[in-house]
Structure formats: structure tokens, C-alpha cells
Amino acid sequence: MTNFQSPNRHVYDQTFVRSLFDSIAPRYDLLNHALSSGIDILWRRRAIQLLQPYQPKYILDVATGTADLAIEAMRLNPDHITGIDISPKMLERGLQKIRLQKLEQRITLESGEAEHLRFESGSFDAVTVAFGVRNFTDLELGLNEFHRILRIGGCAVILEFSRPKQFPIKQMFHFYSHSILPLLGGIVSHNRSAYEYLPSTVTEFPDGEDFCAVLRSAGFTTAVCFPQTFGIASIYIAKKEQL
């Protein structure tokens, strides 16, 4: 397997990433929905719709954050969803939402790292992650772990920001993410550096066919990209099949 290491992608210390998300956890949902005009909700719904044909019963939601995608995945009526994240504060917010919806018996949250999953090989029918893979310290190791814990015939569904290619969306997105987002995010969250970090991870992350190639190098037989909203985000479906 090839080792993906882009010369343009900075690798951030996990302690830094954990403390960053802990600091913005109280206002994370508000900022997500407000700064995207609610489009992020539609993207998550679309990701789960694309997962529906696989009818997964056991789902692992990695970088679950405040559990939005895990809760959305309940539309598929799985037997159980496990959500993991490195940020205790984000998990606290997620657990509050799960309790409000009385889903404690169907969704469990725990601390965990994508690069070192505690689960046995072939334990899950699907792995999901929304806006989390670009924060992995070791991208290849994390995706290898996805592949390992999936059963044969299972799939990974990954929602992530991408870079629009067409004028003028490309220019507008760059200006918004590097100028407006840090300003507004910093004012509301009181942590401007967090909203400078987040756009930088998008700029440095492989997207489109480049990310599909990384997924295939991690062992997935097929990997397909579905661009969303002029390419601002993309949904990737990667399937584990018997070779």
C-alpha cells in the first residue's frame, strides 16, 4: 500500500486538535449551521441516503463530534451505532442530544482515535465520518483501520469539504473560507485560530479523484465521489469487497 503524504499537507498534533475542538464545542453546532446556511444538514442527509442501499445494521461513526451524522443515520433503522471522537467536550454535547431524543440504547459514544480503533476486524457493516478525515494525523492509517473493521461487502461513507474548481465559485469559496469564516467564527466561538485552522485543512487535503485514489490504496475495491453544492463538499462511497 502506498503511503499518502502530501508535501502540502501539515500534520497536526492530536493534542492540539483535541484542545481546539474542546474549545469550540459549546458553539460548534450553531456555527456549523449558521455559517453554511444549513446546507451542512442537507449534505449529511444525502450521505445517509447514499448509504441506504447497503442496509447496515452496525455502524461506526468516526469523528462523531456532536453526533449529528450518527443521529441522522437512525433513519436507516440500524441495530446499533457507535460514535467515537477524540474531543471529550464534543462527545458531551453529542450525548446531550442523544438523551434528548431517547436514543441511548441505539447510539453509544466513546473516546477513540481513528488511527487506532479498538474493534475487531469485520465488526461493522458501515463506517461513516462527516468533516473529520482531514483532521487525521495519519490519513492512510485511519483509512486502513476503516477497511479492517468493515465486513466484506461493507462500505465507508465519507462527507468532507472539497475545493470548488469553477469560476466564480472557486474564488468566492476561497474568500469566504479564508476571510469571512475566521472573522465570524472567531467572534462567536472566541477562538479565531480554530476557524483559521479549519479552512487550512481543506486547502491542504486531497479531494475528488485524488482522495478516491487514497481510499483505493487503503484496500477499498471501489471508491466513488459525489460532489455537492458546486463542489464545496463531496461524499465518497468506498466499498470493501473480496479480492
Features:
seven-stranded mixed beta sheet, globular, disordered N terminus, 9 helices, Rossmann fold, alpha/beta, about 240 residues
Characterise this structure:
The protein is of the alpha/beta class and 243 residues long. It has one domain: Vaccinia Virus protein VP39 (Rossmann fold, 3-Layer(aba) Sandwich), CATH 3.40.50. It has nine helices and seven strands. The protein has a seven-stranded mixed beta sheet, with helices on both faces. α7 packs antiparallel against α8. It is globular.
Q: Which SSEs are present, and which pair or pack?
A:
Elements: H1 14-24, H2 28-35, H3 39-51, E1 58-62, H4 68-72, E2 80-85, H5 88-100, E3 107-111, E4 124-130, H6 139-149, E5 150-161, H7 169-189, H8 192-204, H9 209-217, E6 222-228, E7 233-239
Parallel strand pairs: 1-2, 1-4, 2-3, 4-5
Antiparallel strand pairs: 5-7, 6-7
Helix pairs in contact: 7-8
